[in-house]
Structures are given as C-alpha cells and as structure tokens.
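Protocol step 6 of 9: fold each sequence in the batch and record its structure tokens directly after the sequence line. For illustration, a two-sequence batch is reproduced in full.

Sequence one:
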Amino acid sequence: MTDEAWSRLRAVCPRCRTALTADDSGVMCGPCGARYPLEGGILRLALGREGAPGYDPHFFRTLERVEGRHFWFVARREVVLDALRRAVPDLDRRALVDIGCGSGGLLQYLRDRGVTVAGACDAYLESLEIVRRRVAVPLALVDEGRLPPLGPGHDLLALFDVLEHLDDDRGMLRFLHSVLAPGGVVVLTVPAHPFLFDDRDELAHHRRRYRRGELREKLEEAGFSVRVLSHFMAPLVPLLLAMRAVSRFLPRSRRHRRDRQQLEFRVVPVINGLGRALLAAERQVLRLGSLPFGSSIIAVATRPGDGPAAPEGLGSGRGGGR
C-alpha cells in the first residue's frame, strides 16, 4: 500500500488528534511521540474500548459466507448504490471511507461497481482480517466507544447499520460533520421503527431503532442538509411483527436467541428467492420516491457547501413520521 493510499484515509493520532507520519513499520505522531504499528496490512490505532460492546464478532464469519446471496444483504447494497448514484452526481470524483465496515461485503460491492474506496475502519480485528482479503484498501483498527481517529477533509463517509450500535449517536453525527469537507456527503442505513425492537436487537447490541423523523432531526441538528431519507425493506415489516409475537413463547436464554439469529442468516432457496423478488420490486418504487414504512431507513446528507444537487427519486421524506 502506497503512502498516497494511506493519506486518503486521513487517519490521525487517537491520543492527540494530530496528523500521522508513515514509515515502513507503521505511523508516528510527531507532537506526542506515539507510534502505531502496521501489521498484516492493518493499522493498529486502538487504545482500548470504552463502554459496553457494540457487536458480537462471532457473526463476522457467518456474514462473510452469506452476504453475497442472502436477500437482505443483496437488497441493502442495491438500495445504497441507487441512493448514492441519484443523490451524488459527482460520485466518481469522491472517495468513500467506511466506518464500521463489518465483513466488507457492501464495501466490496460498491468498489466493484465503480465507487472509489479510500479506506475503512472497524473496532474488531476479526472484521478487518476478512475485509483485507476482499478489498485492497487502507484498513485501521479503531476503538469501540470512541470517535474514530479521522482527520478533516473527507468527501464521502459511510456508516452501514452502525449508528444504532453507538451510545452517543448525536455525538457521532456531529463528529462526521466536523471531518467532512464543505459539500461532503454521509450515507448511512439504520434499523427502523422502535415498535419492532425485540430480543434480536438486544442480541445484536442495538441501542435503538429509529423513526424517520427522529433521524432527520438528529442529522439536521448536527448541521447536515438531508438529501435522501426513506424507509426500505417494507415487505419485511409484517414478518418481523409475526416473529416478535412468536418469540414471546420461545426460550429466552442467550444460547437459544443466538441459535434463532443464526437461522435468520440461512439462505433457503425458496424463501431467499421470494425475498429477493419482493425487494427488487420495492427497489423500483424507491427509484420514484420515498417509502413511508419499512424495517430499515437510508439517509444521504451533506455538509452545506458546494455539494450535489437535490436528487430525483428516493425522495427527501419530508413527511416525517416513522
């Protein structure tokens, strides 16, 4: 990896938030003298977790196996790419940094379809070791419970189903605004509808599910201008409600709940085909405007400045509500 490639990640010292200088073995912070090793293609910028865990790394291997085929992951990646292409007309001149990149399937998909990727970070080494095999970009191990050590000047940042894992989502949004250049873009997805919150969310270490109006409020409070805001995964809402009702009568030990979550990741051909067909139809509707309900929400927002024009389709969701 070249020095130029690492410079696009715009990583800073997690101790004093100043720029880092690279050498063959890692990076160094001049002002505070801290050194951070580069091992196996992963820059180790972690100091130590703060707060409760945000994810169970046990699931990364499962995600690696299924996310290229499972209807939920396939639909999400297509919705994300559609939203970016419609809301960011100069997408080909921007470079994306994925914060909380997970097993890297979505990152790989975007790169393979022409989105320039500047780098990615995650708080779990298990995640980055998988991503390293899939995408040749700068990768940084960062701390859970702390703001990622990224400096200013980014033009495209992504959080795909990450914000709901954070205790301080407002603080994260303010931070993203601060490190984006004027006209910079953030794209994010989150789970929707607080009434769907159940033991699956607890097992996934979700702090919350979002209402659409709530997400708009938090983005605007952080200084963003919202370009796209829509629910998606609408066909899944009745299924999730049914699962929530049934789960009340099932064993609630952590082992039983984890076993049920593993079942959700199984790719059953008939069910998977039906899910992909329903969500492909939904995708056509999303190209015309926003949806008022769905089990997920997608948002694309900009830091005011010389940014992209308002998009057509995938509407701004001014209706508020859930």
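Sequence two, same batch, same settings:
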Amino acid sequence: MITLTTFKGGLEFRQILIDQVPDFISADELTWINCAGLSNQDIEKILKDAKEIPDFLLEDCTTKQRPKIQDYEDCTSIIFKIMVNKTKPLRSAQLNLIFGEKYVLSIIKDEVEMMKTIQSNISKNINKINKLGVGHLVYLFLDSIVDSYYPIIEKIDVEIERMEGEIIKNISPKTAHRIILMKKDVMRIRRNIVPEKEILRALSRDKFDFVKEDVMLYFRDTYTDLLSLGDSIDSQREMLSGLMEIYLSTMSNNLNNVMKKLTLVTSLILVPSFIAGIYGMNIALPLEDRPDAFYFIFVIILVAVLATVWVFRKREWL
C-alpha cells in the first residue's frame, strides 16, 4: 500500500498508485510518501523511475541492512530499525527513509503499529513541518522510533527484577532459559541502538543540504535520549550476565549440597556395613558364642553411628 501525505493547507492522506510516486517526488509541494508491504519488484520500479534517487539505493531498500546514513547530491538516505514488541523473541523491522528538498519517501516491508504512531505525531506538528521543512518531518520519524524503545526497556527491567527474586527463592532450569532469551533481546536492541546513535550524532552536528540548522537542535535532543537508552541497555546486559553467574553459582552450590548429603549418608551406612561384614565371615570372632551377641553388636553399631554423627556435627559437616 502506498499512502501520500501532503501538508499544504492542512494534513491530507490518500492512497496513490506506484506509477504516481515519481511525480510526487518531483513535485514542488512538501510530501510524505509511505510505501508499506511492497514487494521487491514494486520497490525496484519506484526507485528506478524516480530520477532524484540513485540506483544503488535499491539494494539498501530490498535487503536487510545495518542502520546507517548516507548523503548524496540529490537526496539523503537513512536506515533505521523499528523494534516489534508484540513478538517473542523481539524482532526488528527495517525502515528506509529517502528524502530530498520537498519529499520524504519511507519504505517498510512489514505492517507495524509504529507507523500509526509516527502518523499521529506528524499530524500534531503540521505547523512546524511547514516552517522547518523536510528535516523536521524526518526528525518526527526518528524521535518516534527512539521513544518506542522506552516501554520495551522498562518491560525488561521488570522481568529482571522478577528473575532476581526467583533465583533467590526457587531456582529452576527455566530461569536460565529465560535469562538467555532476555539477553538475546537486549543484544538485538543494542545492535540497533549503537549505529543509530551515530546517525543522530551526524544529524545533530554535521551539515546536510536538506536539514535546516534549527532542526539540528531537535536531533540533538533525540540523540541525548538514545545515549541514555544505550546506557540502560548496557546496564541490563551486565545485570543479566550477573544473574547468569548467580544462577550457575547457585546451581553449583545446590549440587555440592546434594553431594555432601549423599556422602554423609554413605559414611553413616559404611560403619554398620563394615561391622556386619566382619561378622558375616566364616571365622572365629568375639561374642559369637554368646546368645545375646546380636544385641551387643547392634549396640556397637548404634554407638558407632552416633559417634560418626557427633563428629560430623562437631566439624559442621551436618
């Protein structure tokens, strides 16, 4: 689906055909063209027909790429990642932004809720978009995506606190599995945030033909937010590594306690087994002629076991 958004005289949304996209890219009016769920063939047709867009951007728009920013003579290209929070494990959808003096072309293959949020934020900032131009429109895209990281990170914080309690109270193999899955989610977010910080740093400091200096202040604010998110992610990664170490240490201690108890039981059984084994041999032994020999031997075994228990308790082994 291809949606055209215009800003002159108020916000207006309408659907357009693939063949119409190059005409609106070349128009003098500020426009946002959103291409969602298109095939690679459709994307290829749009990019090849648009004279303002270099042909080599086709690969960036049709294959998975790392977040990056590239400035060309007639346009600027940005690749950003949108985290999809409704799936486990987390996954990211690639958003390609190509913008020139009067247009923003967004290409995303997946239908994600984030695009509705971006559309809502854009509708609330029509006056600023008309005043500051295409740069502010791009800012609203990136700022909305950065804001979407906060609930995901807060959710991970809650899960980490919950697992801390579980490790202390009731440890199980499922805990390790959850830690590993959560660590993978954190690493996925971090793989996106690290290069995205470089994109926002460039937009807030470097000069781009289609980004006004007034808009750079907005990018600087979003860059600061992303730095804070990066610190939170690094902290969560360290906490999860610490939880895994605690889990492994606790499991090792539990195993040692089990082995300790088994060893103590074996030691207690060893004494009566040794005495019973001696009196089971076919040789002359003390007390064998007494009718009450069984009771004497039983008392000896009982005393030996009690003495063993006393020694274990004395040395705090039991």
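Proceed to step 7 once all outputs are recorded. Observation for sequence two: The first strand starts at residue 2 and ends at 6.
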